[in-house]
């Protein structure tokens, strides 16, 4: 079997972060979309800067830093109640509707499943619980143990290490094109869940497979692992 | 003397990139500002991803990749003429009006001056020529020799290496807050030319000095190096 295990990115891939925009809009009418977008971009930027500078701190704290900066940048007055509500939303994300059934079908095919995320373990466990996916994953892998965020090789190495197999035998699934591309560079077999029909990043590399929802992963695995 | 040398970031700090927005707007009326902003963000993001993944390629090429992606993302039809015009603008940037006089005053105080930039040497030389700053800098330092972009330590190390002194005796000047902050982590004495009155990045670190134009660097140096 070519593919023996699958690692999934968490935010945006398994867990729907749309409710964060909704809540942003409720708290800051007219600015919800800009805030959610800047918050996400800044969150990822801070993971890059801290990885490159070896100044790691947990994703939960970085997420909060990014929220505080984005509100200041947009001139939005963030009080503690708003901050707690928005941060708390990260612990209450719902899974995309197709997820549970897709994950169960993949497990039934004998595949080992893991989450490989920038999120610290507490965040991941909380999101897994809130989305009723307890018992679905064999491993929850957080970059917290290596203190480097994606797309650092130390972060991607967690998959091969936990499964004890080369990256090419592990399917890496992400809705973030940059994540799927950089995982391809690392050596994974990769699948991009392109939920928003975004263009491919101009990085000179492409994920091995692409689809619109998590359900498309099944056909891709079947193609690679013919019965 | 505390400060014996100064390294300057190039784009936005010495060279005014505003003309790029202007030209973008001329080529894509109504979308110039969004394109210029996304182009810049994507350019920096690609330097991060390629540094973390050890997939270096020169800044000129990354800049072009970021332009191509941004146009595709925004649904703008970029033909070769437009691409060449926009890329060519990078080689024809003007310096901010105060620069030449400020740099000459700093040189007259016996300080060694350098540019330390993500840009490859050809881009830097071209921008120095276009902005009539030939002979002003003792060194043009490009990350191209270490194949890691800022904010990697290998990139920041170019300053101490070329000047043969500890980073704390070198003033690192940038208009990008993230650059000034990460250079502070690295060990430089730092100054943020906050041209747009932006809020401080939420990274738990701050540049040692802040001003609105390059001219404010002089007073800061005088404070650190009293006569």
TrEMBL record, chains A, B:
The keyword DNA repair does not apply. Signal peptide: none annotated. It is an enzyme of class 3 (hydrolase). The keyword Hydrolase applies. One of its GO terms (molecular function) is (S)-2-haloacid dehalogenase activity. Its EC number is 3.8.1.2. It comes from the Bacteria. It catalyses: an (S)-2-haloacid + H2O = a (2R)-2-hydroxycarboxylate + a halide anion + H(+). Keywords: Hydrolase. It holds the Pfam family Hydrolase. Belongs to the HAD-like hydrolase superfamily. S-2-haloalkanoic acid dehalogenase family. NCBIfam families: HAD-SF-IA-v2, HAD_type_II. Catalyzes the hydrolytic dehalogenation of small (S)-2-haloalkanoic acids to yield the corresponding (R)-2-hydroxyalkanoic acids. This is (S)-2-haloacid dehalogenase. It comes from Undibacterium parvum.
């Amino acid at each position: 079997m070519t593919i023996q295990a699958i690692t999934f990115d968490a935010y945006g891939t398994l867990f729907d972060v749309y409710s964060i925009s909704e809540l942003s809009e409720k708290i800051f009418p007219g600015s919800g979309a800009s805030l959610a977008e800047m918050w996400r971009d800044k969150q990822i930027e801070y993971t890059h800067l801290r990885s490159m500078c070896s100044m790691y701190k947990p994703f939960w704290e970085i997420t909060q830093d990014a929220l505080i900066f984005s509100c200041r940048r947009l001139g939005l007055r963030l009080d503690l109640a708003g901050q707690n509500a928005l941060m708390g939303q990260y612990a209450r994300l719902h899974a995309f509707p197709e997820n549970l059934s897709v994950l169960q079908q993949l497990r039934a095919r004998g595949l080992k499943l893991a989450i490989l995320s920038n999120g610290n373990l507490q965040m991941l466990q909380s999101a897994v619980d809130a989305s009723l996916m307890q018992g679905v994953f064999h491993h929850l892998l957080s970059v917290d143990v290596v203190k480097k965020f994606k797309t650092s090789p130390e972060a991607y190495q967690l998959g091969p290490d936990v499964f004890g197999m080369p990256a090419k035998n592990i399917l890496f699934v992400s809705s973030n094109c940059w994540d799927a591309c950089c995982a391809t560079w690392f050596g994974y077999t990769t699948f991009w869940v392109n939920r928003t029909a975004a263009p491919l990043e101009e990085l000179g590399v492409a994920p091995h497979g692409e689809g619109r929802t998590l359900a498309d992963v099944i056909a891709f695995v079947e193609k690679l692992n013919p019965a």
